[in-house]
Amino acid sequence: MKKVWIAFSSVVILSFVALIWVGTEVYQKQPPIPNTVVVKETGQVVFSKEDIQTGQNVWESIGGMEVGSIWGHGSYVAPDWSADWIHKEAVFMLNYWAQKDFNLKYDALNVEQQAAIKARLIKDVKTNTFDENNKSIQISEVRYLAIQNNSKHYADVFSNGFEKYAIPKGVLKDEVKLAQLNSFLFWTSWAASTNRPDKDYTYTSNWPHEPLIDNTITVDSQVWSGFSIILLLLFIGILTYYYLSNHEKGEAVENQNLDPLVKLSFTRSQKAVLKYFLIVSLLIALQVVLGAVTVHYTVEGQSFFGFDLSSFLPYSITRTWHTQLAVFWIAATWLATGLFLAPMISGKEMKYQVFGINFLFVALLIIVLGSMLGEWLGVHQFLDLTTNFFFGHQGYEYMDLGRFWQIFLGIGLILWVVMVGRHIVYAIKRNDDSKHLLIILLISVMAIGMFFFSGLVYGENSSLPVINYWRWWLVHLWVEGFFEVFATVVIAFIFSRMKIISVKTAGKASIASATIFLAGGIVGTLHHLYFSGTPVQAIALGATFSALEVVPLTLMGFEIRENWNLLKINPWIQKYKWPIFFFMGVSFWNLVGAGVFGFLINPPIALYYIQGLNTTAVHAHTALFGVYGLLGMGFIIICLRFYSDRAWNHSYLKKSFWYLNIGLVAMVVLSLLPIGIIQAYTSITKGYSFARDAELLYSPTLQVLKWMRIVGDVIFSIGIYYFCLFTVKETLYCFKKK
Fold first, then answer.
1. CA-to-CA distance for 469 and 26, rounded, in angstroms?
2. Which of 203, 322, 329, 729 could cysteine-pair with 290, CB 3.0–4.6 Å?
3. In a 3-state reduction of DSSP, which class is residue 535?
């Protein structure tokens, strides 16, 4: 075991050294926010630093990433504002010069005339005019006219609404805020169209693809994409060989004729956990309803089957709540599982455990309801910008809730770590065969508590590259990293208690799995940051290590087979059939959703063209629900199975499992993936802004594909209904037990 622990420690330490090093580069080489933006010919001040920073806060307050996207991060209905700004600005400037020089529009010019004017445009927008001495940016008078034209357009969009962007009327009424928002949008487009000092690519590594200004994929992105694919194939081969050579060498266990857990005694604290499952069921149902409303906005921009819903619940709110509730209920399920298993781990009921469980339950309700109300108030502009930051809408996908609610949740996680951790420590002190399994479990529990606080590092006026860096520490590392390790160890612990595998084998396998997951997962965080104003090191390391993230997922096919074989060992294991089926579903979607669809958008050469398109939604749905959602459901079922003393009628769970998985497949195959492929083709051939344009998104073909999603959504919703119905009925039964 010593070698296994050395490998684990080395991977974690070296990976964080690399991740933190890139972080220091992000701080030092991020696009500068100028003190002033001035017109070169006249010296007129167009924007100030305060305008840009306040404009970012205004953008956050209206929903931020839930209203279109910036640098490819955000929602899909409205445009990517930075890409859209660049394209509109370029078209204006080209037409201005064409009219001035030839009295024609740009498209009417011959090839030579177009080439001459395009070269003038590229020199104008790509030349870096940031002055390090006075911290100012100089722009040409023509570009200033283009900025004025764009500002007028976006002020109209956000004040009068735009149905095809699902933006209702009156999102912003204050003319000062509208002007500040435009200054922020300009800055994001400037960083994406202006070359870094002494480089031939922009601050966003030439993202977005915009042929008018020769924003094309960089050599670095192409080279590191190829290298990542080579590494992927190499390490899949190595790991598969290792797996096939060693996976049968675990310590043998005695074949059990009876369920080893049949005489398991239950504690007051475990019964106290049951109410979490009721709330989780309600949150799941609400999340699905909000998902249906959110997706309907993509076909009927302001309404829900004719009803003007956007006046009360605009798209930015329904999408915020839909994604946030997913995180809430999945995290709540996993945390409740930890609390439920804690007495099983230690073999005793710790003091004040019931009080702590009840306190966390109340805190969870307050955080969920309070953050949702705050987000609604923030988006409707009832809060000033600073109050919005703390109590309203932070504007960043998956961590939209205000800073106060984040801190409150962080305090709750510390309490959870203490409550679960003390049971694990007590069990470790027994120094038996389960020691190594429990140590890695304790590490994952502590990491879940610690890494949530990475989302608190940035401040109200931090720059976008810095915020994105720490945001992905939370979204990727916290969820995909250490929650993944926690889930792996919990399943290993459960199977060891069922005596399906030995505790020694479970411990060694868990540490090895954690090492493999984190070897790619920690530095792989950077694959979210290729084009976010970050230096080229993010592309090099992100591409390399995000490819390694996929490697362990290729073995999920073997895991599906082994879980299936578990059901054949003894008749009593049939009692746990549906928890095992849900774990099998997790393995399948880990391979397909996180693996195949994840790698679809991992290499820089792919993400350059398809970031923020429906291809991202394919990965998000199949990985977030297919992996983490099904896993959370499996945890609920197995906890109820431990607690319940009656035979189950499996019809509800059978229907739930198959409806959920078939619905998810239909959702992807009939709608999300075809739309994503059409958008990707458009992005490659015409430019990124066209792939996000309303003209394409509301074309007859895409409208049909959007409506086709209703097939998968209905099937999926039936699965949710049966799961929630079963969970509520069985939980209420367990409540009645003494």
1. 8
2. 322
3. coil
Q: Which of 179, 200, 216 is the last residue of a domain?
A: 216
The pTM of this model reads: 0.93
Q: Is the confidence at residue 317, as pLDDT, over 80?
A: yes
Which DSSP state fits 304? B
Domain total in the chain: 2
Which SS3 state, helix, strand or coil, does residue 322 take? helix
Tokens of 64: 């931020």
Distances 667 to 155, 570, 710 between C-alpha atoms, Å: 36, 37, 8
Q: Distance between CA atoms of 225 and 246, rounded to whole angstroms?
A: 31
- The answer to whether 392 and 383 have CB atoms below 8 angstroms apart is yes
The number of residues making up the chain comes to: 738
Q: Which two tokens stand for residue 9?
A: 């420690």
Contact 482, 449 (CB under 8 A): no
135 falls within a domain: yes
Residues paired with residue 330 on neighbouring β-strands, in sequence order: none
For 675-733, how does the pLDDT look when each residue is reduced to its tens digit (9 = 90+)?
Answer: 999 999 999 999 999 999 999 999 999 999 999 999 999 999 999 999 999 999 999 99
State yes or no: pLDDT of 665 exceeds 90. yes
Evaluate whether 121 touches 89 at the Cβ level (below 8 Å). Answer: no
**Within-domain flag for 474:** no
| CATH (domain of 712) | 1.20.210.10
The answer to whether the beta carbons of residues 193 and 84 sit under 8 Å apart is: no
The answer to whether 283 and 329 have CB atoms below 8 angstroms apart is yes
557 in a structural domain:
yes
Q: Is 358 among the domain residues?
A: no
Place of tokens 């959870």: 416
Its domain, for residue 684, covers 551-737
Q: What angle do CA 324, 623, 299 make, to 5 degrees?
A: 65
Domain boundary among 216, 233, 251: 216
Is it the case that residue 246 has pLDDT exceeding 80? no
Question: Which residue do the tokens 């015409």 mark?
Answer: 686
Task: Take residue 581 and report the two structure tokens written for it.
Answer: 């089926």
Report the C-alpha gap between 218 and 609 in whole angstroms: 12
Question: Would strands 130-131 and 136-139 be described as parallel, antiparallel, or unpaired?
Answer: antiparallel
Q: Which two tokens stand for residue 121?
A: 């445009």
The pLDDT tens digits for 78-93 are 999 999 999 999 999 9
> According to the model, what pLDDT value does residue 433 have?
83
Q: What is the pLDDT of residues 344-378, one digit of tens each?
A: 998 888 999 999 999 999 999 999 999 999 999 99
Sort strands 36-39 and 136-139 into parallel, antiparallel or unpaired: parallel
Please give the mean pLDDT across all residues of the chain. 90
CA–CA distance, 559 with 51 (Å, rounded to integer): 54
Cβ–Cβ under 8 Å, residues 629 and 573: no
How far is the C-alpha of 509 from the C-alpha of 504, rounded, in Å?
A: 8
